[in-house]
Write a structure and sequence with these properties.
Blueprint: E1 6-10, H1 14-22, E2 26-31, H2 38-43, E3 46-49, H3 55-67, E4 73-75, H4 82-92, H5 99-106, H6 108-118, E5 125-128, H7 131-141, E6 145-149, E7 159-161, H8 167-177, E8 194-198, E9 204-212, E10 215-226, E11 233-238, H9 244-261, E12 266-275, E13 278-285, H10 293-301, H11 305-311, E14 329-336, E15 340-346, H12 348-352, E16 357-362, E17 369-370, E18 381-387, H13 390-404, E19 406-410, E20 416-418, E21 420-421, H14 427-430
Parallel strand pairs: 1-2, 1-4, 2-3
Antiparallel strand pairs: 5-8, 6-7, 6-8, 9-10, 9-12, 10-11, 11-14, 12-13, 14-18, 14-21, 15-17, 15-19, 16-18, 19-20
Helix pairs in contact: 3-4, 4-5, 5-6
Length: 432
């Protein structure tokens, strides 16, 4: 094994390992005991089963692997592995992104504080430590404002405090969440600290970018369809249906943010709202997006963000032009339902075979309880498609769900119905 073509991956999906091997890399994989798969065991050149979120467990393994067989860089594109990949790079003086920069992405309060050092008009934020903090923040910064965990994902634990009357319920809910796991599927995250920040009114987008030695390329601007109360993500579409001046403001804002946060190389996924003060950074991650957005990017632009993340440190991918051109539109539509109980799930294979369909992932199973939307985990699945343009792709995703997928739900009153596509915005609603 040649260390110069060997990567240490901290946490990975099967797809990540597979694509690293397709690039010709040797793979040293640190994988959590609950995430090991047969494909990873087959493909990884070296597999170490370890709680990769625990630095005390990771450090001795990293030292052993650095000694033999050796590796050029540590990479993670999964949220729980990012910080320890950064620590490995720092430990050995490697070129990959280090811990300090990664922590600014991961810790939303640290990000807000860091941005405030560069811009006095940045979004105000403060830690939520006691009940009285809610009243104090509202008195100083006004209502509404947002309460959310400092380092969770998937819109978990995000609340809008509309006025003083909401504070008691939000505080009680936050206290109930502290110390609990953050979703019903993974055990990787533990909710601990929360913050308060100013609310930004306006349409929401995400920005899929890649940085090449400090040159930031916005690959795609993605429309986000977000639940009006709980902030759960209900769909995505790209290229965003925005006029060029609005797109340029977003590109400029995100590039400035990435400079301020200190990212030099690699993939990023940044969430932005366009409010009265223009584009405002909501949060960002030095990893690929979730919700099949990388599938949309590849479907519309022909750019594989995962291969870029893995290949760029080894010079295996070419730098991208400043404004890649899309050859199609692409969209993710989520399936949702009224509360009830899942009776049956049909149509996934048939849907995957439909024209224009890129990816189908149904999470609902017979017997599951269906809740009102609280966060991303209350969706029942998603369908990713392409179309001639963005609007056509949004429409096509709904057609596949309505025509082919059958998730039957029964309510407490005995009524039955099928899950449906979540609502998506119109072009007029996303203009900014």
């Amino acid at each position: 094994m040649n260390p110069d073509s060997t990567v240490l991956i901290v946490g990975a999906t099967d797809e990540t390992v597979r694509k690293a091997k397709e690039l010709g890399l040797s793979v040293l994989l640190l994988q959590h005991p609950t995430k090991v798969s047969a494909e990873q065991e087959e493909l990884a050149d070296v597999l170490r089963v370890v709680d990769y979120t625990d630095w005390a467990a990771v450090e001795p393994v990293a030292r052993q692997l650095r000694e033999a067989p050796g590796f050029r860089v540590a990479i993670s594109i999964t949220e729980p592995g990012l910080e320890n990949a950064g620590r490995v790079n720092d430990l050995f003086g490697l070129d990959g992104t280090g811990y300090q920069v990664t922590r600014r992405f991961r810790d939303k309060l640290a990000m807000r504080r860091h941005l405030a050092e560069h811009d006095p008009s940045a979004v105000a934020a403060a830690p939520l430590l006691r009940r009285a903090d809610l009243d104090s923040f509202g008195a100083v910064h006004g209502y509404p404002f947002i309460v959310k965990p400092t380092d969770a994902t998937a819109s978990i634990g995000v609340f809008r405090v509309g006025g003083p009357e909401d504070a008691e319920q939000v505080w009680a809910t936050v206290e109930g969440l502290r110390g609990t796991r953050t979703d019903r599927i993974s055990t990787m995250y533990l909710l601990q600290e929360f913050l308060m920040e100013e609310y930004v009114e306006g349409p929401e987008f995400s920005v899929e970018a890649f940085s090449f030695a400090g040159r930031h390329v916005v690959v795609a601007i993605t429309e986000k369809f977000v639940h009006h109360v709980r902030f759960a993500e209900l769909g995505h579409a790209l290229p965003a249906r925005l006029e060029e001046p609005a797109q340029e403001r977003i590109r400029t804002s995100v590039s400035r943010f990435l400079d301020q946060i200190g990212l030099r190389d690699g993939v990023s996924h940044t969430e932005v709202r366009i409010g009265a003060r223009g584009p405002v950074i909501i949060e960002s991650h030095n990893r690929v997006a979730g919700d099949a957005i990388p599938v949309l990017v590849q479907g519309a632009y022909g750019i594989d963000m995962i291969k870029y993340a893995l290949g760029w440190p080894f010079g295996l991918v070419a730098e991208l032009p400043d404004r890649p051109e899309a050859h199609a539109g692409a969209s993710v539509r989520s399936l949702v339902s009224e509360p009830g109980r899942v009776e049956s799930v049909e149509g996934a294979d048939e849907a995957a075979a439909q024209d224009g369909v890129l990816y189908v992932h149904l999470t609902a199973k017979p017997g599951d309880t269906v809740h009102s939307i609280r966060d991303n985990w209350d969706r029942l699945g998603l369908v990713a498609v392409t179309g001639p343009d963005t609007t056509a792709a949004i429409r096509r995703g709904a057609e596949v769900i309505e025509d082919v997928i059958r998730i039957r739900v029964t309510g407490e009153d005995g009524r039955t119905w099928f899950a449906h596509a979540a609502e998506a915005g119109s072009p007029a609603e996303v203009q900014a």
